[in-house]
Amino acid sequence: MNTDLNDPRLTAIGLLAEAYTGLMNRLATQFDEHRLSPVEFEVLMRLARSPGNQLRMTDLAGQTTLSTSGVTRVVDRMERGGLVRREACATDRRSSYAVITEAGLERLDAVLPGHLELVQQWYVGLLTPEQLDQTLGSLRTIRDAVNPCAVAGSEEAAA
C-alpha cells in the first residue's frame, strides 16, 4: 500500500476542498442576510443565466449539486417563496421547467453586488489575470470530465 502522505494528488484535492470550504464560509453570512441558502442562490443564478430564464428540472439537477429529488424539494421551497415557478413542457409531459420569477430576479439583484465584492476580495482579486484565465480553464476541464451534464440546457451547451 502506498503510504506517501506527501503525494501531490492528495495536496491537490485537499487544497481544492479547503479553498471551496473557505470561500463558502466567507459567502454564507451574505446569503443569510438575503434569506437565501447557497443552493437557492445557485438555482437563481443558473436560471437567470439560462435562455428564457428557465431550465428543465433535470438540467437544473445536472447543473447544481443536487439530485433530481433534491432539486424538486428546493424548487418547491423556492416556489412557495415566490422566487421561481414551474411550467409544464409543451413537448414532453414528463418534463417541467423551473423559471425564475420577477421576485427571484429582484432578490438576485439585491444579492449580487455584495456577492461580487466578496468574490473579488476572496477569489478573483487574489489572482493575476493570467492566473484567473488558467484557473477558469482548468476548472472547466475538470468540471467537464466529472460532471458532463453541468451545462445542460445552458447557452454554454448551445455554443
Structure commentary:
With about 160 residues, this protein is mainly alpha-helical. The chain has a single domain, classed as Winged helix-like DNA-binding domain superfamily/Winged helix DNA-binding domain (Arc Repressor Mutant, subunit A). Helix content is about 65%, strand content about 10%. The protein contains seven helices and three strands. The protein has helices spanning about 10-35, 40-50, 55-65, 70-80, 100-120, 130-145, 155-159; strands at about 55, 85-90, 95-100. The protein has a three-stranded antiparallel β-sheet with strand order 1-3-2. β2 and β3 (about 95-100) form a beta hairpin. α1 packs across α5 (about 100-120) and α3 (about 55-65) packs across α4. The longest helix has 26 residues, at about 10-35. It is globular and about 55 Å long. Pfam families: MarR_2 (PF12802). It comes from Actinoplanes missouriensis (strain ATCC 14538 / DSM 43046 / CBS 188.64 / JCM 3121 / NBRC 102363 / NCIMB 12654 / NRRL B-3342 / UNCC 431). GO terms for molecular function: DNA-binding transcription factor activity. This is Putative MarR-family transcriptional regulator.
